[in-house]
Amino acid sequence: MTKKSILLLLSALLFIISINKIIAQDKFFTKSGSVSFFSYTLVEDIKADNNQVLSIINTGNGKIVIKMLMRSFHFKKALMQEHFNENYIESYKFPKAIFKGVIKNFSKLEKKDVAKIEGILTIRGVSKKISTVAKITQSNRKIILKGKFKVRVADFDIRIPTVVSKNISKTIIISFELNHKLYK
Amino acid sequence: MKFKIFISIVIGIIIIFMLISLNFNKVEIIKPQFYLTTTELVDYFNLDEDLADKKFANKLIQIEGTIKNITYNNKKPTITFNATDDSGVICSLNSTEFNHTTKLQKNDKITIQGKCTGFLLDVIMADCIIIKKRKHEN
Description:
The structure holds two protein chains of two kinds. Chain A has helices spanning 3-24, 78-88, and strands at 27-40, 45-58, 63-69, 74-75, 96-103, 112-123, 126-138, 142-152, 171-182. Chain A is of the alpha+beta class. In chain A, β1 and β2 form a beta hairpin. A five-stranded mixed β-barrel of chain B has the order 2-3-4-6-5. By secondary structure, chain B is of the alpha/beta class. Chain B has four helices and six strands, in the order αβααβββαββ. Classes of the chains: A alpha+beta, B alpha/beta.
């Protein structure tokens, strides 16, 4: 091999690496986002947390994908968690909840702003359009999204037995806090 | 006679409370259904996610691997293990394990037991406890 060809090969390699970097810089992600849901009724308050939520933001077009495992939701009472997974959500059939959406006017948002987010939420294989607003805080290395919205239990074909219908609210409040970091 | 009844009721109540407290959060006394290395576990999910989900999800698993990093969320530790280039195993531990995890560091080889909840980009495990630690080989 001549010097020239080695040089050419090296520069080609560098070019590929730099292109990769440019693409990679567009993505912010977290594997430890927090999602909680609440149900308030006169009989009892139910809360569950999931701190292992995956979320990816593409800053090029403002697209956001959030995925979480239903079994990772942690309840105070173990029995509640069992009912949630086995009877209501059927985690063995539908292990994940997925949100695919877009942060509106992403490029025009300030460092600290309120962003409109629209997308499709899929739970138990049932998809539903969600539109909400979230507080957004961004820097060169971080994007933090924080907010909450409501969903109706019936929208996702979740059947709740009449015996416990007074214990579980018809609408559930879902709150989220996602600390995205620049993907390296 | 009344005194004897009273004593037996008190003893009965104490025994019931002991039984109740024994039944909660005792992951450590249960034997795991699978013993794997972190790489093996990730390989199963990369090969066929649905099949691996049926096999491992909601099951108690003991895994052995090398620590990539440890993070804390309100004193609740999370340990990430290296497996393949793209994915690893993320284990969320009970807050009772806090005193053990502070002694651990990157590249330590340890064994952990917990419940597998599924796969996103990594295999996710919940309610984990540390089984044993080995000094990392240099």
